Amino acid sequence: MARVAASAAALVLSTAFLAACGANDDGGDDGGDGGGGDGASGAKIALLLPESKTTRYETFDKPLFEAKVAELCEDCEVLYYNADQDEAKQAQQMTTALNDGANVVVLDPVNGAGATGMVEEAQGQDVPVIAYDRLITNADYYMSFDNETVGKLQGEGLLEAMGGEGAILMLNGAPSDPNAAQFKTGAHSALDGNVDILEEYDNPDWSPENAQQWTSDQLSKYDPSEIQGVYAANDGQAGGVVAALTGAGVALDALPPITGQDAEVAAIQRILAGEQALTIYKPIPIEAETAAEVAVALANGDEPGATSDTGIDQSEYEGVTSYIFDPIVVTADNVADTVIADGFYDAADICTGDYVDDCEAAGIS
User: How many CB atoms lie within 10 A of CB 226?
Assistant: First the structure.
């Protein structure tokens, strides 16, 4: 699997992609003829995202993707849909996108295993599909982060924060999300044999509310003092865990180490305040912008190759032509050197209210 050093810096434009757009600068519309197209100006690119409870999709993926498409091809149109964690709704959105003339589909599936029929529907109309963030085994392209490494980094970070031993609660992602299974596998590879997993939960929709309720339920079985750490697969669940523990009377400065993922602002603030041990930063700009570059190339009838100008190479993953990026662990010690240095957040986004002093203590201003 090819690995790419993650960076949230803007990607350098690919000469081939620019040439593809430039070849169509003479205007004209697509006539609404949809399916496949011939690279005409005004191509339509459908972006189908799975849910909105995780803040990254609406806050980062969607606007970054749309901005990059507009930069590369001003006449291209992005058709945007969010499935709200409803698999049937997403299937209908695929049909709608194809009926509306989508030339390319970028699909982040609610259920990766169940999305093969959606891919077949598009490919049956000569519309290529890019599996975005979550693998679909019959997609034309796939781009995501090294997900088992994400889980392994979380597990290793939790072990370090716990001093290498103890008992934990474990909250995984949705069973329908193929990434969640990879995070879980990676986490177990680090945790198994080193800690006692008191209870484990697969959260059906990743929701913080479910995480909070489940954790509260465990506190009827275990005293908080028996829990030396919590593996939470993402930051939303980490927030739910914190709410459950503090609601049960655990002081903020007595919380056990808790993991997360997605580098949400609230998580970065909790990390600086000592309420969360770590998060995993997956620089979404490099993923969203690469997806946009590949989508524009396909919409213009070109075959995307390795984008050597950006350091992003194609590889094969599960038989699908893929672009795989590396995740980064964020702790209080490297907030300034990661999410802030990359421009993912400004210090002003993080250092608000009660967190101003925490930022100053971490050398962030």
Answer: 15
